[in-house]
Amino acid sequence: MPPMDEHSAAVAAYWDAAAASFDDGPDHGLHAGHTRRAWQRRLETWIPGGPADVLDAGCGTGSLSLLLARSGHRVTGVDLAPRMIEQARRKLAAARLRARFLLGDAAAPPTGGERFDAILARHLLWTLPDPPGALRAWAGRLRPGGRLVLVEGLWPQPEQPAVRYAGGAAPLPWHDGIGAADLAAAVRPLAAHVHVEPLSGDADLWGGPVDDERYALVATVPDA
Fold this sequence. Notes:
The protein is of the alpha/beta class. 35% of the residues lie in helices and 22% in strands. A seven-stranded mixed beta sheet has the order 3-2-1-4-5-7-6, sandwiched between helices.
């Protein structure tokens, strides 16, 4: 991995510090059976069949990578934070499942010229300095007819300086998240088909009710 710039180093340090407690979140660790099953069901509709080559961009501690591997997919997870990658590797090994985890920028995954059947990113776009650029890069890494699956939402960031993201989220263009209509407009020029699936009403996914906008956008790139 090439040397990080100042921003990337701050982001990696932020998520490294969060790694030890990250899975305490019910939708992160997926410890509860009903939450784990809710995500498994959704993933099976977004990325049906198998085995497929799936890139989990910003994989964190690998909870969704594990579910994808359990469904028989060949999974590559990418994350900028070394401690997140370490946890993901341990998690998959403990479950006796295989996946490849790479340290690197999820917006420009270090996978060379590889192409994937599907790319998954959950709650990642708000952290990126150039979200539209990441969308274009991901679309370019899909095979013809491949799927881009974006689990996103629209929410305010906390205002307390002690918990601001990586030194302050305000400079990031989508730091408050992005609504489904706006993300669909950004993705539509890259895709042959775009489908938005509301997720706010499925409390099992989040470990309880939520009152903000959460959704999955599934985009299929052209066949040729």
